[in-house]
Write a structure and sequence with these properties.
This protein is 17% helix and 30% strand. It is α/β, with parallel strands linked by helices and 495 residues long. It folds into 2 domains: 9-257, Alpha-Beta Complex (Spore Coat Polysaccharide Biosynthesis Protein SpsA, Chain A); 269-475, Hexapeptide repeat proteins (UDP N-Acetylglucosamine Acyltransferase, domain 1, 3 Solenoid), CATH 2.160.10. The longest helix has 21 residues, at 263-283.
């Protein structure tokens, strides 16, 4: 054969299993690891491999899995600025390749061989096929590239690993234990002899092979062994019979081939996943107080000398500038934090779609909450139990205690008092509050939007402001204090 590793790559992902051990109404492949479904990790790896297409084999709760795939498709296109109507086309308008995600139904579920048979109509004849599992999320792209290169378009390549306790796994049988490269069979646990059960090299479930070869072997599968399942592993004996070399790429990283079958296994793999992300960040210079108490459920880009304390959770897209300090127990999602800012403990930053932006040298927290659309300028102070939503605070503005700023534009050097709020909602619509530069808002004030507080003005404590105020003015809107000297406090009646 004259095939090369430059052949187009098509990825088949098996995702039809019930996952009964998860004891969950959610399909196993949609259980979340690092904030994303297991299946999404595998699809993203396919994208990293620059696969021409992905064929996902669904079965149990197929509709739910397909809906999740559609969401993944849309997200992938959004990230790559690809129009949704181009999702399942071979190329965009500028001829840039995109990832086409297709699905096929396996019904009934009659084993791994039967599953891959369902994908055959979706597989072109001119490519390499990589078979992955939707519940094995941490296989690395460089490992799979090595496997594909080993197949080289003319071999059947298996990803294998040595396990000290291989019980339950298919054993890799070689013709000569000293040759190290010729595989003659994969024997399932229940079919293995006593001698074969002593073999520690096991099959991961991941293969790479030329499409035409795979299709021919899949057509030869039968279920005569137990009349219930078609084994994908039987293709090994067909390859040997056809004189096609069967080779193994053996790795020593168990997490890359670890599947998820129970909540315990999911939790174990979650910690391994998080530790790996933590190590990458630390290698880049990030100071993590304890990498075992760190969670990244999206992407995190950090500048130099960033410090992150324990039990912080990052999700979505987060960027952190140089010299930023993040205190313990913070939750940060879809945010940009500029150089030198300090995020004190127990702060929640929830950017969602609008995002949150925090300026250089800002001080936020502890126990603060920044909601979508919050934009903080340089040296802004947001203190304990202060909530900001869809509001812009200019450089040097401060709200240090127990305040709410929603749908507001706040000028430079404004001091917003404790217990004060912008009343932005009239029961039907949101309205804007404008607080111009150098305003001082006293404690326990209500600014009823729409309203503008003129530059340099002061709002007396306890005021409810319903009309705009002129620049430089003292504005007070509260009832007159009355003291009754002869007042008697009510007394409790004794029965």
């Amino acid at each position: 054969m004259n095939q090369t590793v430059n052949m187009p790559l098509d990825v088949v992902i098996m995702a039809a299993g019930k996952g009964t051990r998860m004891k969950s109404a959610l399909p196993k492949v949609l259980q979340r690891l690092g904030g994303k479904p297991l299946l999404q990790h595998v699809v993203e790896t396919a994208a990293e491999l620059k696969a021409r297409s992905v064929v996902v084999i669904t079965g149990h709760q197929s509709e739910v899995v397909v809906n999740a795939l559609n969401s993944m498709n849309q997200s992938f296109c959004a990230i790559n600025n690809i129009a949704e109507d181009a999702i399942n086309t071979p190329a965009t308008a500028n001829n840039a390749p995109i990832l086409a995600i297709n699905n096929v139904l396996q019904e009934p579920q009659l084993g791994t061989g039967h599953a891959v048979q369902q994908a055959v109509p979706k597989l072109p004849d001119d490519g390499m096929v990589l078979v992955l599992s939707g519940d094995v999320p941490l296989t690395q792209a460089d490992t799979l590239n090595a496997l594909i290169a080993l197949a080289n378009g003319e071999k059947l390549a298996l990803l294998t690993i040595d396990f000290a306790n291989p019980v339950g796994y298919g054993r890799v049988v070689r013709s000569d234990k000293h040759s190290g490269d010729k595989v003659t069979a994969i024997v399932e646990q229940k079919d293995a002899t006593d001698a074969q059960k002593l073999i520690t090299e096991v099959y991961s479930g991941i293969i790479a092979v030329q499409s035409n070869l795979l299709k021919a072997w899949l057509a030869c599968l039968d279920n005569k062994k137990d009349f219930s399942e078609f084994y994908l592993t039987d293709i090994v004996k067909f390859a040997v019979a056809d004189g096609i070399a069967v080779v193994a790429h053996k790795i020593n990283d168990a997490a890359q081939v670890a599947g998820v079958n129970s909540p315990v296994q999911l939790a174990e793999l979650e910690r391994e996943y998080q530790l790996r992300q933590a190590k990458v960040l630390m290698e880049q210079g990030v100071r993590l107080a304890d990498p075992a108490r760190f969670d990244l459920r999206g992407s995190l880009v950090c500048g130099q000398d960033v410090e992150i304390d324990i039990n912080c959770i990052f999700s979505g897209q987060v960027s952190i500038g140089a010299g930023v300090k993040v205190g313990a127990h913070c939750v940060i999602s879809n945010a940009r934090i500029a150089d030198g800012a300090v995020i004190q403990p127990f702060t929640h930053i929830e950017g969602e779609k609008l995002g949150v932006s925090i300026g250089a040298g800002a001080l936020v927290g502890p126990f603060a909450r920044l909601r979508p659309g919050s934009v903080l300028g340089k040296d802004v102070h947001i203190g304990n139990f202060v909530e900001v939503k869809n509001a812009t605070l200019a450089d040097g503005a401060k709200a240090n205690h127990l305040a709410y700023l929603g749908d507001a534009t706040v000028g430079e050097r404004v001091n917003f008092g404790a217990g004060s709020i912008t009343a932005n909602y009239d029961g039907a619509n949101k309205h804007l509050t404008v607080i111009e530069a150098d305003v001082h808002v006293g404690s326990n004030c209500v600014l009823v939007a729409p309203v503008t507080i003129g530059a340099g003005g002061t709002v007396g404590g306890g005021s409810t402001i319903t009309k705009s105020t002129p620049a430089g003015a003292l504005s007070v809107a509260r009832g007159k204090q009355v003291s009754m000297t002869n007042w008697q406090r009510p007394k409790k009646i004794v029965k």
